[in-house]
C-alpha cells in the first residue's frame, strides 16, 4: 500500500516524538550511571554526562559494603516476596468467590469494595488504625495493609469470569470442591494474569518508601527505598551510612577523594533500581497483557 505524502510526514513526526521520549527516559538513567561509576571528586568538577571520566567502582564498594544498606536490602527483598505472595493469594480468593454470579449478597459486597476504591479516611485515621492493630514499627506494616487490592480484585474477577463456565461446571460435577476448582482449573488458566498482577504488586512493594518513612521509626526495619529517600535529603554521608568500616576509612585518608555525597547517592539509586529492572524482560509479554486484562471480555 502506497502512503501519501501526509501519511509519511505523520509517521515521521511520530518516530521523532518517540525517539525524543526514549531519550528523555534513558538520558537521566545514563547520567546517574555515569556519575556512580566516576570518582566523586572528579564528577564534582562537572562535565560528566553519559560516560564516566575517571572510572571507579569504589562508590559501589561503599554502598554494597555498608551494613545499613545491606539490611535495608534484606527488608526490601523479604517485603517484596512475602507481600506479593500474600497479596496475590488473598486477592485471588476474594475475586474467585465474587466471580460466582449467584453468590448471596454479591452486589452489596462488590459495592462495598468499590466504595473503598473511591473514598478513604485519610492518613491520620489510617495511622491510628495501624497503631491500634500494633502494626506500627513492625515488619508487618508493609504486608498486611496492602494484602488486598480492590483494583486487582476487579481485574482478577473479570478475567475469571472470562473462563468458560463449562470447565468449572464439569469439575463441580466430578465432585471438585471450590478450592479444588480454584487450584486445578482457575489458577492454571490464570497464570498470565497472575504474572502480570504479581509484577505490578512486586514493583509497588519494591518502590514504596512511604510506609517506611511514616510508619516505621526503627532504622533496622526501613526498606532500601526509604533509606534512599533519607540519603537524598542528607547533607553528610555519615548521617545516614553511620559509623561503619567504609565511613571510617573515608574519614581516615586518601579514599575521601574517591567519593562524594552525590556519587554515593547515584550509586544507591542504581543499586535500588537495577534489580527490579532486570525482572521486566522476563515478564514483558505478561506486562502488556496485564494492561489489557479486563478491557475486553474473552
Automatic annotation (TrEMBL):
The chain crosses the membrane at residues 12-34, 72-96, 108-128, 140-160, 181-206, 262-283. Residues 73-271 form the ABC transmembrane type-1 domain. One of its GO terms (biological process) is transmembrane transport. The keyword Membrane applies. It is a multi-pass membrane protein. It is found in: Cell membrane. Keywords: Cell membrane, Membrane, Transmembrane, Transmembrane helix, Transport. SUPFAM superfamilies: MetI-like. One of its GO terms (cellular component) is plasma membrane. InterPro entries: MetI-like, MetI-like_sf. It holds the Pfam family BPD_transp_1. The keyword Nucleus does not apply. PANTHER family: ABC TRANSPORTER PERMEASE PROTEIN MG189-RELATED-RELATED, POLYGALACTURONAN_RHAMNOGALACTURONAN TRANSPORT SYSTEM PERMEASE PROTEIN YTCP. Belongs to the binding-protein-dependent transport system permease family. This is Carbohydrate ABC transporter membrane protein 2 (CUT1 family). It comes from Cohnella lupini.
Amino acid at each position: 500500500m502506497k502512503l501519501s505524502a501526509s501519511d509519511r510526514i505523520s509517521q515521521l513526526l511520530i518516530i521523532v516524538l518517540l525517539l525524543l521520549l526514549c531519550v528523555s527516559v534513558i538520558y537521566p538513567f545514563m547520567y546517574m550511571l555515569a556519575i556512580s561509576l566516576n570518582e566523586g571528586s572528579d564528577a564534582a568538577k562537572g562535565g560528566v554526562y553519559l560516560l564516566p571520566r575517571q572510572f571507579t567502582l569504589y562508590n559501589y564498594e561503599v554502598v554494597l559494603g555498608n551494613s545499613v544498606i545491606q539490611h535495608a536490602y534484606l527488608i526490601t527483598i523479604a517485603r517484596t516476596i512475602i507481600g506479593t505472595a500474600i497479596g496475590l493469594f488473598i486477592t485471588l480468593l476474594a475475586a474467585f468467590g465474587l466471580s460466582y454470579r449467584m453468590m448471596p449478597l454479591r452486589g452489596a459486597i462488590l459495592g462495598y469494595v468499590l466504595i473503598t476504591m473511591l473514598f478513604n479516611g485519610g492518613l491520620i485515621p489510617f495511622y491510628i488504625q495501624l497503631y491500634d492493630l500494633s502494626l506500627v514499627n513492625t515488619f508487618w506494616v508493609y504486608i498486611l495493609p496492602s494484602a488486598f487490592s480492590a483494583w486487582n480484585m476487579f481485574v482478577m474477577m473479570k478475567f475469571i469470569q472470562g473462563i468458560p463456565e463449562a470447565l468449572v461446571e464439569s469439575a463441580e460435577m466430578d465432585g471438585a470442591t471450590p478450592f479444588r476448582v480454584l487450584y486445578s482449573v482457575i489458577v492454571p488458566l490464570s497464570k498470565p494474569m497472575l504474572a502480570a498482577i504479581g509484577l505490578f504488586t512486586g514493583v509497588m512493594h519494591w518502590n514504596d518508601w512511604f510506609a517506611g518513612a511514616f510508619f516505621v521509626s526503627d532504622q533496622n526495619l526501613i526498606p532500601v527505598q526509604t533509606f534512599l529517600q533519607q540519603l537524598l535529603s542528607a547533607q553528610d554521608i555519615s548521617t545516614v551510612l553511620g559509623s561503619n568500616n567504609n565511613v571510617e576509612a573515608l574519614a581516615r585518608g586518601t579514599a575521601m577523594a574517591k567519593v562524594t555525597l552525590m556519587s554515593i547517592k547515584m550509586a544507591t539509586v542504581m543499586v535500588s533500581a537495577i534489580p527490579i529492572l532486570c525482572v521486566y524482560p522476563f515478564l514483558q509479554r505478561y506486562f502488556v497483557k496485564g494492561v489489557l486484562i479486563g478491557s475486553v471480555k474473552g
